[in-house]
Design a protein that fits this description.
heterodimer, A: mainly alpha, 5 helices, B: mainly alpha, 10 helices
Chain lengths: 85, 203
Protein backbone atom coordinates (compact mmCIF):
# COMPACT_ATOMS: atom_id res chain seq x y z
CA UNK A 1 0.00 0.00 0.00
CA UNK A 2 2.77 2.38 0.99
CA UNK A 3 4.68 1.43 -2.13
CA UNK A 4 1.58 2.14 -4.22
CA UNK A 5 1.12 5.52 -2.54
CA UNK A 6 4.78 6.34 -3.02
CA UNK A 7 4.62 5.47 -6.72
CA UNK A 8 1.64 7.78 -7.15
CA UNK A 9 3.52 10.47 -5.28
CA UNK A 10 6.57 9.98 -7.53
CA UNK A 11 4.43 10.42 -10.61
CA UNK A 12 2.81 13.58 -9.24
CA UNK A 13 6.24 14.96 -8.36
CA UNK A 14 7.97 14.26 -11.67
CA UNK A 15 5.00 15.82 -13.47
CA UNK A 16 6.14 19.03 -11.81
CA UNK A 17 9.78 18.60 -12.80
CA UNK A 18 10.11 21.50 -15.26
CA UNK A 19 7.84 23.98 -13.43
CA UNK A 20 9.79 23.25 -10.24
CA UNK A 21 13.19 23.78 -11.88
CA UNK A 22 11.88 26.97 -13.51
CA UNK A 23 10.71 28.27 -10.13
CA UNK A 24 7.14 28.44 -11.38
CA UNK A 25 5.37 26.25 -8.82
CA UNK A 26 3.04 27.72 -6.21
CA UNK A 27 4.46 27.53 -2.67
CA UNK A 28 2.33 24.59 -1.57
CA UNK A 29 3.35 22.47 -4.58
CA UNK A 30 6.99 23.47 -4.24
CA UNK A 31 7.11 22.38 -0.60
CA UNK A 32 5.52 19.06 -1.51
CA UNK A 33 8.10 18.47 -4.24
CA UNK A 34 11.02 19.42 -2.01
CA UNK A 35 9.82 17.14 0.78
CA UNK A 36 9.42 14.24 -1.62
CA UNK A 37 12.85 14.76 -3.17
CA UNK A 38 14.47 14.69 0.27
CA UNK A 39 13.32 11.11 0.73
CA UNK A 40 13.27 9.78 -2.85
CA UNK A 41 16.65 9.28 -4.45
CA UNK A 42 15.15 8.10 -7.75
CA UNK A 43 13.12 11.28 -8.27
CA UNK A 44 16.02 13.39 -7.03
CA UNK A 45 18.25 11.86 -9.72
CA UNK A 46 15.71 12.77 -12.44
CA UNK A 47 15.63 16.34 -11.19
CA UNK A 48 19.43 16.47 -11.00
CA UNK A 49 19.72 15.26 -14.59
CA UNK A 50 17.20 17.83 -15.83
CA UNK A 51 18.94 20.57 -13.83
CA UNK A 52 22.30 19.61 -15.33
CA UNK A 53 20.71 19.82 -18.77
CA UNK A 54 19.39 23.34 -18.11
CA UNK A 55 22.79 24.44 -16.82
CA UNK A 56 24.46 23.01 -19.93
CA UNK A 57 22.04 24.90 -22.19
CA UNK A 58 22.57 28.14 -20.28
CA UNK A 59 26.34 27.72 -20.63
CA UNK A 60 26.23 26.67 -24.28
CA UNK A 61 25.92 30.15 -25.74
CA UNK A 62 29.36 31.21 -26.96
CA UNK A 63 30.97 34.29 -25.45
CA UNK A 64 29.34 37.51 -26.56
CA UNK A 65 31.21 38.60 -29.62
CA UNK A 66 30.23 42.04 -30.86
CA UNK A 67 29.08 41.97 -34.44
CA UNK A 68 30.47 45.23 -35.85
CA UNK A 69 29.01 44.62 -39.30
CA UNK A 70 25.48 44.18 -37.93
CA UNK A 71 25.84 47.19 -35.64
CA UNK A 72 27.06 49.30 -38.55
CA UNK A 73 24.17 48.13 -40.69
CA UNK A 74 21.61 48.99 -37.99
CA UNK A 75 23.19 52.40 -37.33
CA UNK A 76 23.15 53.18 -41.03
CA UNK A 77 19.47 52.26 -41.27
CA UNK A 78 18.70 54.32 -38.17
CA UNK A 79 20.50 57.34 -39.60
CA UNK A 80 17.94 57.23 -42.40
CA UNK A 81 15.34 57.85 -39.68
CA UNK A 82 17.25 60.84 -38.34
CA UNK A 83 19.25 59.02 -35.65
CA UNK A 84 22.54 60.69 -34.81
CA UNK A 85 25.30 58.72 -33.12
CA UNK B 1 3.56 71.16 -31.54
CA UNK B 2 6.33 69.70 -33.61
CA UNK B 3 5.50 67.87 -36.79
CA UNK B 4 7.67 65.60 -38.86
CA UNK B 5 10.90 67.27 -39.87
CA UNK B 6 10.65 70.09 -37.33
CA UNK B 7 11.75 68.27 -34.19
CA UNK B 8 13.66 70.17 -31.58
CA UNK B 9 17.33 69.26 -32.18
CA UNK B 10 18.06 69.20 -28.43
CA UNK B 11 15.16 66.81 -27.80
CA UNK B 12 16.22 64.66 -30.71
CA UNK B 13 19.76 64.54 -29.41
CA UNK B 14 18.58 63.45 -25.96
CA UNK B 15 16.34 60.82 -27.49
CA UNK B 16 19.17 59.44 -29.60
CA UNK B 17 21.51 59.34 -26.63
CA UNK B 18 18.92 57.50 -24.59
CA UNK B 19 18.26 55.09 -27.45
CA UNK B 20 21.99 54.43 -27.75
CA UNK B 21 22.28 53.79 -24.04
CA UNK B 22 19.20 51.63 -23.54
CA UNK B 23 18.42 49.90 -26.84
CA UNK B 24 21.65 49.40 -28.75
CA UNK B 25 23.41 47.38 -26.00
CA UNK B 26 20.84 44.63 -26.62
CA UNK B 27 21.87 44.17 -30.25
CA UNK B 28 23.44 40.75 -29.61
CA UNK B 29 20.43 39.55 -27.62
CA UNK B 30 18.04 40.75 -30.33
CA UNK B 31 20.24 39.02 -32.87
CA UNK B 32 19.98 35.74 -30.94
CA UNK B 33 16.22 36.10 -30.67
CA UNK B 34 15.95 36.85 -34.38
CA UNK B 35 18.00 33.76 -35.16
CA UNK B 36 15.64 31.76 -32.99
CA UNK B 37 12.72 32.96 -35.09
CA UNK B 38 14.11 32.63 -38.62
CA UNK B 39 16.11 29.99 -40.37
CA UNK B 40 19.08 31.84 -41.82
CA UNK B 41 21.52 34.59 -40.85
CA UNK B 42 20.55 36.91 -43.68
CA UNK B 43 16.85 36.90 -42.68
CA UNK B 44 17.88 37.29 -39.05
CA UNK B 45 19.93 40.40 -39.81
CA UNK B 46 16.99 41.84 -41.76
CA UNK B 47 14.80 41.16 -38.74
CA UNK B 48 17.27 42.80 -36.35
CA UNK B 49 17.43 45.90 -38.54
CA UNK B 50 13.65 46.11 -38.78
CA UNK B 51 13.36 45.64 -35.01
CA UNK B 52 15.67 48.58 -34.34
CA UNK B 53 13.98 50.78 -36.92
CA UNK B 54 10.59 50.16 -35.31
CA UNK B 55 12.04 50.60 -31.84
CA UNK B 56 13.47 53.96 -32.86
CA UNK B 57 10.25 55.12 -34.49
CA UNK B 58 8.20 54.13 -31.45
CA UNK B 59 10.79 54.99 -28.82
CA UNK B 60 8.36 57.47 -27.25
CA UNK B 61 6.10 54.51 -26.35
CA UNK B 62 8.80 52.62 -24.43
CA UNK B 63 7.97 52.47 -20.73
CA UNK B 64 11.25 53.30 -18.97
CA UNK B 65 10.11 51.32 -15.94
CA UNK B 66 10.23 48.12 -18.01
CA UNK B 67 13.06 46.04 -19.43
CA UNK B 68 14.22 47.27 -22.81
CA UNK B 69 15.39 43.83 -23.97
CA UNK B 70 11.92 42.41 -23.41
CA UNK B 71 10.34 45.35 -25.26
CA UNK B 72 12.71 44.78 -28.18
CA UNK B 73 11.87 41.06 -28.14
CA UNK B 74 8.19 41.89 -28.57
CA UNK B 75 8.95 44.22 -31.47
CA UNK B 76 11.14 41.53 -33.01
CA UNK B 77 8.31 39.02 -32.80
CA UNK B 78 5.84 41.48 -34.38
CA UNK B 79 8.27 42.22 -37.19
CA UNK B 80 8.82 38.51 -37.71
CA UNK B 81 5.09 37.85 -38.01
CA UNK B 82 4.75 40.75 -40.41
CA UNK B 83 7.60 39.33 -42.49
CA UNK B 84 6.14 35.87 -42.55
CA UNK B 85 2.50 36.92 -42.37
CA UNK B 86 1.83 33.73 -40.46
CA UNK B 87 3.31 31.76 -37.65
CA UNK B 88 3.28 28.55 -39.60
CA UNK B 89 2.19 25.15 -38.53
CA UNK B 90 3.45 23.86 -35.24
CA UNK B 91 3.46 20.16 -34.63
CA UNK B 92 1.09 19.03 -31.95
CA UNK B 93 2.30 19.16 -28.38
CA UNK B 94 1.54 16.67 -25.68
CA UNK B 95 0.06 17.88 -22.40
CA UNK B 96 2.64 19.46 -20.12
CA UNK B 97 2.55 16.72 -17.50
CA UNK B 98 3.32 14.11 -20.12
CA UNK B 99 6.28 16.15 -21.28
CA UNK B 100 7.66 16.18 -17.74
CA UNK B 101 7.19 12.42 -17.58
CA UNK B 102 8.94 12.17 -20.93
CA UNK B 103 11.91 13.98 -19.41
CA UNK B 104 12.13 11.17 -16.89
CA UNK B 105 12.04 8.60 -19.68
CA UNK B 106 14.89 10.43 -21.39
CA UNK B 107 16.91 10.27 -18.17
CA UNK B 108 16.30 6.53 -17.82
CA UNK B 109 17.27 5.99 -21.44
CA UNK B 110 20.44 8.03 -20.91
CA UNK B 111 21.40 5.88 -17.91
CA UNK B 112 20.78 2.72 -19.89
CA UNK B 113 22.91 4.08 -22.71
CA UNK B 114 25.76 4.93 -20.35
CA UNK B 115 25.12 8.66 -20.70
CA UNK B 116 23.58 9.35 -17.31
CA UNK B 117 26.43 11.68 -16.43
CA UNK B 118 26.94 13.18 -19.89
CA UNK B 119 26.36 16.77 -18.79
CA UNK B 120 29.13 16.50 -16.23
CA UNK B 121 31.46 14.54 -18.48
CA UNK B 122 31.14 16.18 -21.88
CA UNK B 123 31.43 19.63 -23.39
CA UNK B 124 28.09 19.69 -25.11
CA UNK B 125 28.04 23.42 -25.91
CA UNK B 126 28.45 23.16 -29.70
CA UNK B 127 26.08 20.18 -29.88
CA UNK B 128 23.47 22.07 -27.85
CA UNK B 129 23.65 25.13 -30.12
CA UNK B 130 23.39 22.89 -33.18
CA UNK B 131 20.40 21.06 -31.70
CA UNK B 132 18.70 24.35 -30.86
CA UNK B 133 19.23 25.54 -34.45
CA UNK B 134 17.59 22.36 -35.73
CA UNK B 135 14.40 22.87 -33.69
CA UNK B 136 11.15 23.99 -35.28
CA UNK B 137 11.16 27.82 -35.02
CA UNK B 138 8.18 27.87 -32.65
CA UNK B 139 10.03 25.59 -30.21
CA UNK B 140 13.38 27.27 -30.78
CA UNK B 141 11.99 30.68 -29.87
CA UNK B 142 10.66 29.63 -26.47
CA UNK B 143 13.76 27.68 -25.48
CA UNK B 144 16.09 30.53 -26.45
CA UNK B 145 13.98 33.09 -24.60
CA UNK B 146 13.65 30.86 -21.52
CA UNK B 147 16.89 28.97 -21.17
CA UNK B 148 19.36 31.41 -22.73
CA UNK B 149 17.77 34.86 -22.36
CA UNK B 150 16.19 33.94 -18.98
CA UNK B 151 12.70 35.26 -19.71
CA UNK B 152 9.91 34.06 -17.40
CA UNK B 153 6.92 32.14 -18.80
CA UNK B 154 4.81 35.32 -18.63
CA UNK B 155 7.49 37.37 -20.36
CA UNK B 156 7.81 34.82 -23.16
CA UNK B 157 4.03 34.75 -23.57
CA UNK B 158 4.03 38.52 -23.84
CA UNK B 159 7.00 38.66 -26.20
CA UNK B 160 5.67 35.98 -28.55
CA UNK B 161 1.97 36.83 -28.22
CA UNK B 162 0.97 33.32 -27.20
CA UNK B 163 -0.80 31.96 -24.10
CA UNK B 164 1.33 30.96 -21.11
CA UNK B 165 0.05 27.39 -21.44
CA UNK B 166 1.42 27.29 -24.97
CA UNK B 167 4.76 28.60 -23.71
CA UNK B 168 4.95 25.77 -21.20
CA UNK B 169 3.95 23.10 -23.71
CA UNK B 170 6.42 24.27 -26.33
CA UNK B 171 9.21 24.77 -23.80
CA UNK B 172 8.94 21.33 -22.25
CA UNK B 173 8.64 19.71 -25.65
CA UNK B 174 11.65 21.66 -26.92
CA UNK B 175 13.72 20.56 -23.94
CA UNK B 176 12.80 16.93 -24.52
CA UNK B 177 13.73 17.21 -28.20
CA UNK B 178 17.06 18.77 -27.22
CA UNK B 179 17.77 16.08 -24.65
CA UNK B 180 17.00 13.38 -27.18
CA UNK B 181 19.23 15.05 -29.76
CA UNK B 182 22.08 15.31 -27.25
CA UNK B 183 21.74 11.66 -26.36
CA UNK B 184 21.98 10.72 -30.03
CA UNK B 185 25.01 13.00 -30.30
CA UNK B 186 26.64 11.32 -27.29
CA UNK B 187 26.04 7.86 -28.69
CA UNK B 188 27.17 8.77 -32.22
CA UNK B 189 30.33 10.31 -30.83
CA UNK B 190 31.06 7.16 -28.83
CA UNK B 191 30.81 8.88 -25.47
CA UNK B 192 28.74 6.20 -23.78
CA UNK B 193 30.47 5.09 -20.61
CA UNK B 194 31.13 1.37 -20.90
CA UNK B 195 30.96 0.87 -17.15
CA UNK B 196 27.51 2.46 -16.95
CA UNK B 197 26.12 1.08 -20.15
CA UNK B 198 23.20 -1.25 -19.68
CA UNK B 199 22.00 -1.19 -23.26
CA UNK B 200 21.92 -4.96 -23.33
CA UNK B 201 19.88 -5.14 -20.14
CA UNK B 202 17.41 -2.37 -20.96
CA UNK B 203 13.95 -3.26 -19.72
Amino acid sequence: MNEQLNREDCEAVVQRLWPHLDGMLPDSDRERVIQHLESCAACQSHFDFAKAFLEAVAAAQPEETPNPALLERVLKALSGEGFAR
Amino acid sequence: MSGPGVENPRTTSARDAEFSALALPHLQAVSRIARALVQNDSDADDLVQETYLRAYRYWHTFDRATDCKRWLATICRNAFYDFKNAEGAVSSVEPEELESLAAVRVHKAAIEAGLGDMYARLDLGPAIMKAISALDPAFRAVVVLSDIEEFSYDEIASALGIPVGTVRSRLYRARRLLQEALMVYGLDAGFASASNSKMGNAK
